[in-house]
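hi! just following up on the protien thing from before. the input was this:
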Amino acid sequence: MNLKKSLLLIAVILIIDQLSKIYIKTHFELGDSTEVFSWFKIHFIENSGAAWGAKLNDFLPISESAGKLILTVFRLFAVAGIGYWLYDTLRKKSPQTLILAVSLIFTGALGNIIDSVFYGLIFDHSNGQVATLFSDQPYGGVFYGKVVDMLYFPMIDSVWPEWVPYFGGKDFRFFEPVFNIADTAISTGVGILLVFNKKAFPKNEEEAEIEEVDTMVNQSPENE
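and the predicted 3d structure came back as:
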């Protein structure tokens, strides 16, 4: 994968991600849900924190606004770091598997940071109303936006049997997290690195020769 293909992939996914989020913000109230299939719903939530909705002020003695600002700044540095990683893989003409994975991770991180940096500045709130794009009364400011999530796959929506200790009678849902296109890109990129690790990070000739020598030494009669 060359630079043009990588940029095209980033642009396409980023456009789809942002268009889907803008559509949800301007057509759904917070908490609204539409069933597409029994196992797939469009469910609008906003995430002002890190993964799984966690917030820094849940763990540190700081205000929620300070925690949000720190998290957004951290995300900016993370996106910059991933962007440099992508540039480096392209410059070194790394394996296409690695370039594809890093391109996906970078796109997902960039898609979510756009929400965090700008959405509080261009939308009003979605609580009990459909948000307005480029509102005169935005719900936040730069760096204080919330990430829009809408993809929900409750493939199993049932109740724990009564005989199960502690959980008996309680609701059981799988898969419960609500996410977006950007999250999907990040997860796919990470999955590619895990599943196709050897293709993404092939050993160079020197490492292969050292490993071959070690194998020969270990298999020699003197070591038996």
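The chain is about 50% helix and 15% strand.
Strands lie at 33-37, 40-47, 147-152, 156-159, 171-174, 178-179.
cheers
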